[in-house]
What does this fold into?
Amino acid sequence: MTTMEQSRLRCELVKSTIGARVLNTKEELLSGALAEEIMDLLEQCGVIVFPQLNLTDDEQVAFTNTLGKFAHELRGEAVYKISLDPSVTATADYLNAAFFWHFDGFMSPMPIRASVMSAKVLSPAGTGNTEFANTYAAYEALSDEDKAHLADLRAVHALAATQLDVYPEPSYKQWQQWRAVGRKELPLVWTHRSGRKSLVIGNSAHNILDYDPLDGEELLVRLRDFATSDQFTYLHEWTVGDCVLWDNTGTLHRATRYDPTCGRVLHRTKIEGDEPIV
It folds into this structure.
């Protein structure tokens, strides 16, 4: 593990490809003075852990506001409670798809830039952790042949694809409800304003345009398997009070399995996106 100093930001890298821990105090972080350095570090490593920060909801909202334009949830709330208990989270049923690799906001004109998540109640030890994969680093590690092959390919993304992972044999009525949410065609490779490129994959991607369906699925599986291999991934083992910031435009994430009745709750806030996938 490499420790480094960036001005007043005190951090240590987890891997060269993904992950860093920031060691500054809560007061330093809430001041906003380190926001630019934090976002620069996020661009580099994809995921930043703030151990044992113990943010209240108001503090988490304030911290998120220092990092970019705050994004409210679809129902208007500032803080989204991530729980599989429908009495805690109205959309708990859809969260079962979060056990599979994904990024957030694939149907939006501009996906969420980044998210902040704090652990409030944990599942039993060894369960309910969160994995992240750096899709910038994975793209950069592809062969020149693969990069040329992927350059002009596009895939269909849809809520229905995410839900089929959880409910592989839905009723026709259920299928129609998922389908009504719509679909979106996105490139397999996102060329960012910075000039860097990342893979646009995950469980929302269902097929590749102009491909035989099985051949398209095979390519998506190969890319996901490569991008989520150990060299590009970080597993965060939660402790209560941890706060994690991740770049939604250049990573995938998923929760590891846990008992849905265990009471696990994490609180999430989001930073608005400002760049369409092109």
About this structure: The CA atoms of residues 52 and 242 lie 4 Å apart. Residues 213-227 form the longest helix (15 residues). The two ends are 35 Å apart (CA to CA).
